[in-house]
Specification:
By secondary structure, the protein is mainly alpha-helical. The protein has two domains: 13-95, DNA polymerase, domain 1 (Orthogonal Bundle), CATH 1.10.150; 122-293, Intergrase catalytic core (hpI Integrase, Chain A, Orthogonal Bundle). It has 13 helices and five strands.
Amino acid sequence: MNTGVSIKNDITFSSFAQQWYENEVLGRKAHKTQLGYKCDLKNHILPMVGHIKLKNISFVHTRMLENSILQKNKTNRTVNKVIMIFKTILNDAVKTNHLLKNPIKGYPELKELPRNFTYWSKDEVKQFLSANRNHTNYDLYSVTLNLGLRLGEVLGLCWDWVDFESSNITISRTLSRGGLQNTTKNHESRFLPMNDLVRGLLLKRRIKQNKSPFIFCDNDGKPLPYDHVTNRTFLKAQKNAGLKNIIRFHDLRHTFASHFMMNGGNIYTLQKILGHKDIKTTMIYAHLDREYLRQATEIVKFE
């Protein structure tokens, strides 16, 4: 059938994937995302389908790719992530007239086990903050716990997006190992209200610090190193507090979200605060709401 569209699909998947990575990923996605895509292409996708021409890609190749990942004892979540990248590349092939339609559209995901997450109890948070009240990064820990930020987001916070009059912070940047990027993980800015504690803390910090654009910085005004915070200072701070439940920095975000729900927060409000595009991502915290299931059973009531 002549559609009037010139289809340029006589190239290998590997050749198109390279173009896709350079045009759609490199410099456009977060540094961690770039590395993840590059790794999955190299280790999983290209060895299986890189040599195949775009016009010959089919469901069969996707099943072969899926099986090869499972044979490496990877989880269903890893399989779904890799297949998602594969689908994304083929979707872009359609957009750029390399394919008329995505040949693996509708390929089903594997069922994933619920993701486990770790968080501190209220007493553990109190123990940690009390022991580190004079720590250089105390403010950083406190802001993270009170706003539920990702590490890259809190390190990328700058004064230009703090509005003390409205008590709002705009989350629009991420600092990673690759440097500062004017984007968040899901590429959308979000607005977070500051509670009185965070507002007061930042006001005091603003008075003392008026040179660096970064809220959290070293003595030279440079942003705090990503790895230094995660691998050195935060771990030492936990040990200094005598905590037995040693967690990752990202678990401070889980701690915020968990206590938000346990204190009566709404799951849809939490989605907006955390910046999740898909409510399913936020639903891992839903069971912590003691009223959640009770309210659900009240929706339908026959008398």
